[in-house]
Amino acid sequence: MRKTVAVLIASCLFFALPAPAASAAAAPKLTSYGYGKLKIGQTKAKALKTGLIKLTGNAGSGCTTFVFKKKPKAASGYLSNKYGVIAIFAAKSMKTPKGIGLGSTKSAVKKAYPKLTQGPNVYSAPAPGNKTAEYLFLFGPDNKVYEMGLVHKKQHCFN
Q1: What is the pLDDT, as a whole number, of residue 21?
Q2: Is 44 part of any domain?
Q3: What is the pTM of this model?
Q4: Does the keyword section mention Signal (predicted)?
Q5: Among 5, 26, 80, 159, who pairs with 86 as Cys (CB 3.0-4.6 Å)?
């Protein structure tokens, strides 16, 4: 009888416990080609068709700015009339496939992207596998990334 009660209690406890949470779908990465369905070089029409972005203004030089409609908040970018999606800037939640994101240290970025080079205003690294794009990184006084993005090498929308 005691054995039956113990089994019954154990069964009740097992079925009463909440199921483990399903792992949330991993957020898309800021890959060498883009973010989710949004890709560097994609035409304005195709970029809008993804449903991810909304246009926010004219940036001059044949360029338009955009923001993501939903998450990730604060991410933005540029569309070029000539080259399509020309830049995607990272939001706090975005990371590259190598785990680099806002707040990453300069040493972590150098380790992940050994070809990182310093330009006059920004650091850049080739986007692995994509000869038309590169990652850009801005570091603060604490040597941590405070802004980063994926840009077309022929970008002409911003300095």
Answers
A1: 39
A2: yes
A3: 0.81
A4: yes
A5: 80
The CA distances from residue 66 to 47, 85, 109, 124, 127, in Å, are 10, 10, 26, 22, 22
DSSP 144: B
Number of structural domains found in the chain: 1
pLDDT for the residue numbered 16? 39
Residue 72 Cα distances to 24, 29, 62, 82, 142, angstroms: 15, 11, 26, 26, 25
Amino acid at 114: P
Q: Between 61 and 153, name the one with better pLDDT.
A: 153
Interval 116-128: pLDDT, tens: 999 988 999 999 9
Instruction: Please give the residue range of the domain that contains residue 64.
Output: 28-152
Identify the helix (H) or strand (E) that includes residue 117.
strand 117-118
- 123: tokens are 């650091």
Single out the residue of 139, 51, 30, 36 nearest to residue 94, CA to CA. Answer: 30
